[in-house]
Design a protein that fits this description.
The chain is of the alpha/beta class. It has 10 helices and 6 strands, in the order βαβαβαβααααβαβαα. β1, α1 and β2 form a beta-alpha-beta unit.
């Protein structure tokens, strides 16, 4: 039976963001699954509140009994919660452009307030204005035009009021940092970063160093590696 891979997307994306990666994995004989996380895409009507525990329950309920788990950005943070909650079900963990949380309490509170403000604005502003605001962050400033086009197309599969609830429930400021729990990851952990993504290169080095069986992979690209360099991401997952 082919190994199952569950792939979790980032904030304001959907499982479709993994299409290139999933296609490459299927050519290698994997069974690739990319669900929409609560509050996104087909799961926009997920019952409130949206929490990390709720995301863990939903992914585990729909996943095979044992699987390789990958997560990008927000999806990586959800994947960390899953791997620590159900280590017997996760054979390997791949974290792409992700983090174990904001450690500094004042910085985390500032991010929480900013996320809640953005959530309020999401419910009022035209959705296309939000999409442009999100895509023009410095984090995505150097991405190729085609990556930006694909990311915008994927964002339009969401509903703004649902994304607002995601920010209020599982935004970066809502997550308790998990750095001190990384030693509890006993499965192999592959940490994947883009060579142009300086902030997450530093975070990735630390993630890989603090996970007992962690390994860092630096690929050509920026923050949104599943869209920019799907073949290389699939290659890491296949050899993780």
């Amino acid at each position: 039976m082919p190994e199952s891979v569950v792939l979790l997307h980032g904030f304001s994306g959907t499982g479709r963001a993994w299409e290139g990666v999933a296609a490459a994995l299927r050519r290698e004989g994997y069974r690739a699954l990319a669900p929409d996380l609560p509050g996104h895409g087909a799961a926009s009507d997920f019952e409130l509140p949206i929490t990390f525990d709720a995301c863990v329950r939903k992914v585990l309920a729909d996943a095979p009994e044992r699987f390789l788990l990958g997560g990008y950005s927000l999806g990586g943070r959800v994947a960390l919660h899953i791997a620590l909650s159900a280590p017997d079900r996760v054979s390997r963990l791949v974290l792409v452009s992700s983090t174990a949380g904001v450690e500094d309490a004042s910085e985390r509170e500032a991010r929480r307030l900013a996320d809640h403000l953005l959530a309020d604005e999401l419910e009022r502003m035209p959705f296309e204005d939000f999409i442009e605001r999100w895509r023009t962050q410095p984090l995505f400033a150097d991405e190729p035009p085609e990556v930006g086009r694909l990311a915008r197309e994927d964002q339009r599969r969401n509903r703004p009021e649902a994304l607002a609830e995601v920010l209020r429930g599982i935004g970066a400021g809502e997550m308790e940092p998990m750095w001190d729990r990384l030693a509890g990851l006993h499965m192999p952990v592959s940490v994947v970063v883009g060579d142009r993504d300086a902030k997450f290169v530093a975070l990735g080095r630390r993630l890989a160093a603090e996970a007992p069986h962690g390994r860092l992979f630096t690929l050509a690209g920026g923050h949104n590696l599943p869209l920019e360099n799907p073949e290389a991401v699939a290659g890491v997952i296949a050899c993780a």
